[in-house]
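Q: My labmate handed me this sequence with no annotations at all. I'd like to see what the chain might look like in three dimensions before we decide whether it's worth expressing. Could you predict it?
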Amino acid sequence: MTEDKFIPLEFNIIPEKQMLLNSKIFLEDLRKRRTVREFSEEKPPEEIVINCIKAALSAPSGANKQPWHFVLIKDSEVKENIREAAEAEEKEFYSGRASDEWIEAVKPFGTNEIKEFLTKAPYLIAIFAEKYEQTGNGKLKNYYVSESVGIATGMFITALHFSGLASLTHTPSPMNFLNRILDRPENEKPFLLLVTGYPKLPQYVPDIKKKDPATTITVI
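A: Here is what I predict for the chain of 220 residues:
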């Protein structure tokens, strides 16, 4: 271990009482987070979304390869193109490719091939997973790509919620049209399309319940 490859850790030591309080406040706040499908056309400051992306970029990744790329989309014409392509894929999916089991599973949410939120919301963020890094010397393998991009995406959604914005994860299948519309290289694979902005109010969301933590947490 050499000093030039390591730096001192910056870590804020918090009293345990405050740690417990922080964890409870964070828990209760995140429990209020809901996916929304109707967005206000009011545009929040772009800097807020950029800061949330930067927060996501601090995520851990396999071998620190940071195998992701975020494209912030605010241009109305580009959003129209994305909606048109996404609805074409979704129409085919809902009219034949989707299993009866899937159709039944999403019935309570009222989802279909119409994706108005793609043009109504002020911002779309296309998140790409970089399968490998293209360099002048050829291809360099990235490690734990899906896991790394998934962690960054979760941090991004949390940052948006913390900042006061609503979001929706959208995953039309396949999503290769995003490479074409956004001119992204072939080493990047669309991971998901995230929609964000202020929620349209009033708005009603499905009355869903999360699983009892006792059934999904094991302490040994």
